[in-house]
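Quick check before the chapter quiz. The format below is the same one you will see on the exam, so make sure you can read both the input and the output lines.
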Amino acid sequence: MDGLEGQSVIVTGGTRGIGLGIVRRLARAGVRLTISGRKPERLERVARELEEAGAAHLIVQADVGDADASAHVVERALEAFGQVDGLVANAQSLRPVTPLEEVTARDLDVLLDSGPRGTLWLMQAVLPAMRARGRGRIITMGSAMGLTGPPGYGAYSAAKEAIRSLTRTAANEWGRHGITVNCICPASVAHRLPPGDDGPRAAAFAAMYADQALGRDGDPEADIAPVVAFLLSDASQYMTGQTLMVDGGGIMRA
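Here is the expected output.
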């Protein structure tokens, strides 16, 4: 499936939501997975699931916003599997819905550390191994919110646009080494809402899908993960520096 069997791929933030959907899809394709996350209990739960499925895997507790922690994740992957074929830089912390005039330094630090800074540290860490092999696939995570600018999400949107900018620069600088770098902007939000949540975030998500072409939330495993698998495969070898809107056509309303 996808020609990915035997590849070594790092997935950050791979313990729930979109990250977990990607992990499950890649595990079925025979990928050797290195999964990072901040919470040990979530990592152990994913490890048990993958053990039961017979999938080759490694879990690493790490806050990828720290450059040393990101380097450690890559070092562990190389020790376990001898190579790194792909990186899915999925990790991103969230902050409460906040008007722009009320955004604090703490809000920015959390979003920038877990988003563009963490993505950059990871990209830097995988570069030497990918460059030495003459092949690599890097996938980053943006957001349509960076393009549409919804109220209350200014800091988050800025962090996601910074990731898209890093994606394009890395694609330009590293393409000659056989490394492609692409970004996806997924629409898959159900996992972010506590049961019964009827607050500002739920209202924003309801409005987002009200006039979306497909009219539904994206499923992490069935809708988002297959696009990631494509970008990790050789089928995407002539595509780099691109942003794919995996959002059910939502961007068309912008």
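If your answer matched, good. The radius of gyration is 17 Å.
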